[in-house]
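User: Blr3207 protein, Bradyrhizobium diazoefficiens:
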Amino acid sequence: MMEEVPTSVLSAEQCHLGEGPTYDVTTDTAWWFDIREGRLFEAHLGGGSIRVHALGRMASALGRIDADRQLIVAEDGLYIRSLADGAMTLFCPLDADNPTTRSNDCRVHQSGTFWIGTMGKKAEPRAGAIYALHRGKISTLFPGISIPNSICFSPDGATGYFTDTPRAVLYAVPLNPATGLPRGEPEVLLRHTGIGGLDGSVCDADGQIWNACWGASRIDVYSPQGERLRSLSVPAKQASCPAFVGPDLSRLLVTSAWQDMDAAARAADPQAGCTFLLEASARGRAEPDVKLA
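Assistant: Predicted structure for Blr3207 protein:
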């Protein structure tokens, strides 16, 4: 059964490819990206103000370093961004010598290790990978990925999740909770069938996996055993990624996109690319800071 929960538009600025939402509970600020247009959105939820920052490059995700700095994952590398003035300094390159790839789905593990997904700019098969930035060094975790998505972690840090969207499989990987690095091989948790595809995901405080089903106008909630528990309606067909927001982390921010839609498809989906807030009655978790050393 599809649930219709109270839903509002946080931002009516329609993203070409909205992605990478995260929330800083210390400042009540949500952040997300329009990957294709190289834009970073900053929304102060309590005050209602929204700013849009031009990055000059495609970027897809960020991790909070501390109160003054963020780590931005961009198409050519990782950048330290100053919150005071928006200045970006290259921390380390990533696929900088490969102009066919860009970053995609990413998330910070409780240990401070950052999992980073890359893909071909035209979704070329197996052109991307999932990497880990652990204590300042990048290693390859899973090569040959076409469209990395659903990177998230169980509350105890002992399990990581990811998908390669065209494969329609959500994988679970045993992790070392102290490092966020794999200590075993990925296993199939669930196989997606029906309309849409597995896109971005986030785990709540109970270990449930909240997944944006791209092309199906919904968020699906799965148990740690892979059982679908809920489906929440989203007023845009291409929902792309969720994040828990608000002082009690009970609301769900959902990004969306109008990518690959022609004029007729956009007319039929007038809120495509908007960013939404769902009153999901969830029990979310605060995102950890990324550790650089």
